[in-house]
Each structure stands twice: as structure tokens, then as C-alpha cells.
Design goal:
Its main location: cytoplasm. Helix 3 packs across helix 4. This protein has six helices and eight strands, in the order H-H-E-E-H-H-E-E-E-H-E-H-E-E. Strands 1-2-3-4-5-6-8-7 form an eight-stranded mixed sheet, with helices on both faces. The protein has a single domain, classed as Aminopeptidase, CATH 3.40.630.30. The protein is α+β, with helices and mostly antiparallel strands. Bound molecules: coenzyme A (COA). Coenzyme A binds next to helix 3, strand 5, helix 5 and helix 6.
Length: 202
């Protein structure tokens, strides 16, 4: 490894450390990402560590994931494993961005973290779930834009996620947001694909 590469790896680790220590990484963009309004969609958005989430909201997050994506898991080789999903959603490192309606009921969320992935600093989006009644109102785009801004601000190299290959609408959505198949995605294609978006530096 050359000196330049060592520096670059250490600066990536530093960037992740800085981002991971930040209590509320969306704060620099609070004005832009604390509310989303379009037609009949009027929500406010908060960002919390898993440890600060209330149990009821975590339970709702699990139920929404089950409603939205269990059918895709069931019809591919992986199968729906609620205990695995439950455990993933309850990781101590998990950060949540949650959209709530006027009655303070949650309607959509994304779960993510800053991490190293195959030698790259990334913002890894583990879940993006919008309640059916709030889909196709621009909320998914809003969340991805928020994640992208954070990834940029904290000097991550990529915004990355995993999607089931049979989730055609999900893949269409991510493609429309500029995601492409990541180099680390399984080849030949399998039950899931890894998609990513390179972050232009500020
Ligand atoms: C996939 C998902 C996150 C998209 O979020 P959304 O809020 O419904 O999507 P948006 O309204 O922000 O759509 C933005 C753009 O993405 C594209 N898009 C979104 N859904 C699409 C679909 N079903 N088919 C084709 N294109 C789609 C469109 O270009 C759309 O722009 P337009 O509405 O102006 O045409 C959401 O529908 C969802 O939660 N689905 C179930 C769970 C899931 O699949 N999650 C992702 C994998 S974990």
C-alpha cells in the first residue's frame, strides 16, 4: 500500500468516526429536511438513534417492513425471517429518520448508519419503508435526498443499499434516483442486489 492510500484509508476512518459521533447528523440540514409537504402529504421528520426510539415506533417499523417486503422475501430463496428482521432493526448502531403525520403517527422511515464497506466509506441505507397510503408522494425521494446530503456532508464515498431482485418497483425507484449496481453486488445476479450512488465531494 502506498503512503497516499494509507492516508486515504485513515481519512475515511476519520470521516466515519466524526459522522458516527454526531448525535443528530441531519441537523446541518434541519431547515430542508425536518418537514415534507406535497398535496395531502404533510409530515414532520425526526432523526434518532435506535436507543432513543420508543418501543411502539420500533414495533411499527417492524410491522411496516413486514407489510411492505415480506411478500418479496417469501417469493425468493431467502424466505421471510421475522426474527432476523427484528434483530436488524434493533441494532444499537441503527439510526432512524422517521416521518410522522399531523397526529404524530409514523408513516415512513429509513434506517441507516455510517460505515466502512469493502474499503469504502459509506452511508448504508438498511431500510426505506413508506406506508402504502403515503407511497408515490415523493417521500422516498425526500428520504434519499436527505441521506445523500448527509453522506456528502460527512465525506462518505457512496450511498449504498441492498434490495431484493424481485422487488421491481423498488429497483425502478432506486434507478430513478440515480443508483446503479455496485461493484460488490453478487455476480451472476442472485436473490438480492447491491445498489449504490457515488457521492460527489462538496
Ligand atoms: C420504493 C419506495 C421506497 C419508493 O418511495 P415512494 O415515496 O413511493 O416514491 P417517490 O414518490 O418518492 O417516487 C420518486 C420517483 O421514483 C420512481 N418510482 C417510485 N415508485 C415507482 C414505481 N412503483 N414504479 C416505477 N417508478 C417508481 C418514479 O420516478 C417517482 O417519480 P414520480 O412519482 O414523479 O414518477 C416505496 O414505494 C416503498 O416503501 N415501497 C415498499 C418498500 C420497498 O420496496 N422499499 C425499498 C426496498 S427496501
Amino acid at each position: 500500500m502506498t503512503g497516499v492510500e494509507v492516508n486515504s484509508v485513515s481519512s475515511q476512518h476519520k470521516a466515519i468516526e466524526r459522522a458516527s459521533k454526531t448525535k443528530n447528523p441531519i441537523e446541518p440540514f434541519a431547515e430542508q429536511f425536518s418537514k415534507y409537504t406535497k398535496d395531502d402529504c404533510d409530515v414532520s421528520v425526526y432523526c434518532k438513534w435506535k436507543a432513543d426510539m420508543d418501543a411502539k415506533t420500533l414495533k411499527w417499523a417492524m410491522k411496516l417492513a413486514e407489510r411492505n417486503v415480506a411478500p418479496f422475501y417469501r417469493t425468493c430463496g431467502i424466505g421471510w425471517q421475522p426474527k432476523v428482521k427484528q434483530s436488524d432493526l434493533n441494532k444499537n448502531w441503527a439510526r432512524y429518520l422517521v416521518a410522522v403525520d399531523k397526529a404524530k403517527q409514523p408513516v415512513a422511515y429509513t434506517m441507516f448508519r455510517f460505515d466502512m464497506d469493502y474499503g469504502c466509506s459509506v452511508l448504508y441505507c438498511y431500510e426505506l419503508q413508506i406506508d402504502k397510503t403515503y407511497q408515490r408522494k415523493g417521500l422516498g425521494r425526500f428520504f434519499i435526498n436527505a441521506l445523500e446530503q448527509m453522506a456528502k456532508h460527512y465525506n462518505m464515498e457512496k450511498l449504498i443499499l441492498t434490495v431484493l431482485s424481485n422487488n421491481e418497483d423498488g429497483i425502478k425507484f432506486f434507478n430513478s434516483m440515480g443508483f446503479i449496481t455496485d461493484d460488490t453486488s453478487p455476480s451472476p445476479p442472485t436473490d438480492y442486489a447491491i445498489l449504490s450512488k457515488t457521492i460527489d465531494s462538496l
